[in-house]
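B., you asked whether I could sanity-check this one before it goes into the benchmark set. Here's the sequence:
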Amino acid sequence: MSFDGILIHLMVNELSDTLTNGRLSKVHQPYDNELMLVFRNHSKNHTLLLSANPNYARIQLTNIKYKNPTTPPNFCMTLRKYLEGSILQEIKQTNNDRIISFSFESRNDLGDLESIVLIVELMGRHSNIILLNKDTQKIIDTIKHVGMSQNSYRLLLPGADYINPPLKNTQNPWTVNNEELFKELNSMADLTPQAIQQQFEGFSKDTANELVYRLIKSDTDKVTTWKNFFNEMTNHLNPTIGLVNQKERFAPIPYQTFDENLSQFDTLSDMLDAFYEGKVEKDRVKQQAGELIKKVTNDINKLKKKTKILEKQLVDADNAEIYRVKGELLTTFLHEVKRGATSVELPNYYDNDEPIKISLNEALTPNQNAQKYFQRYQKLKNGVAVVKEQLNITKYELLYLESVLAQLDIASPSDVQLIRDELIAGKYIKNKTKDKKKQKNKPSKPLQFISSDGDIIYVGKNNIQNDQLTLKTANKNDIWLHTKDIPGSHVIIKNNDPSDQTLLEAALLAAYYSKYRLSASVPVDYVAVKHVKKPNGAKPGFVIYDNQKTLFVTPEINEIKKIKEC
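And here's what the prediction gave me:
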């Protein structure tokens, strides 16, 4: 389910109960498109997240901590000037649209009461947050400035008059009466999600699909089924994250169109925290690490091409013996080879005198052709050792960079700089910082889980953590796990004799935090740490091991979520 008008209606109710008449004490802007407003109400602090992120636009209460920039952005400073210390009077949704107004009352510099409205428009890539003077309807500022070149219908700039987005001529599903509803539903030629979206305001595809499913499946009349659907959301709210075709979806109630219900929550905000935390963080990592991902991917592609070339050279070298044979046959039967011929057929005494056709350079003498074959044979044979060495080095580099790419896929924003430093140290990228003094970044902590049987499981998120975990944190009898011949995280079970269930859960984590996280039957090796060694001069995260056993697991997301993270 996307953050549609239906969910906004319910979220406004949730926020109103918690925040109305509360005092806004702090304003933060941790990212370009996101605000954190801290309210004091009912003797508690409540943090409201307002996001105009193009992919994750939403409003909700949150318990997730965000790191704020050293210097607040201009929009944040404007909000602090107008809103800090003010009282939130009302939270209101425009019809059933994706527009929410937060009305505040405060005193200005002269001590006069002033009404200020913070409007949040959740419109995908057009999402915005607008600070407005309620009396004049003049825009004070916006989190995204939108000029005439971007939108000819309205300006979203300081000083401009605020104009609502164009409204659709559709019915509000919460307020439509039974007679109108009966007329609308029966006027539809086909009862489809698209028809619902065209006739009624605020339906995402997921919500419309769920409603149509219930309307078609139900034994009762359509109007009653419709009313029951909205009554369930209003009076029996049960926020749920479920699976549809192995993809996570969220809804205010358990949807019958879900393949499986994964988790249920007390509030919509708790559900959204659980749903968005990893996804938003991953998106930020992609933004921060976009250059790194591109560089590492390009290097991987170059190494793959080089590997193919070297492997072909080895295949050619394996065929070198035939050149020696041809040279010897030409030397033996020189008298039978005519000068100027382009080929000759001779008996191969290495193969029961079976005839063999030998290509010739017509510009060379028979003896020169023989010497040419000997030279080609010698060149290939002499190059085998060099090619094998180059191939080993290339495969080693490839394995390392694939491990880095896999780590960028699971990295948190704080991990990105550590991976960048690792690549700088390995001379894969240049250090672009002007400050020549080496800045020490605080090492991030590995992921920590608790198995069903109470054992601690550590998962490294980058090569520095992998080395730290395996070579320093782990005891020699702890169990070490890693995907077999696949780039991924080092996993440590802090127990020298874990149960089969703990081994399975650790193997699932090893598979999930690897390059093959979306694959089935992923091989995972496990062995006591004492059998894991790091060769001298090896790259970060690279180890060798023996005496291992192997498990095959499929890291399905619902199974991973059952493993408790500390």
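One thing to flag: The two ends are 28 Å apart (CA to CA). Otherwise nothing jumped out at me.
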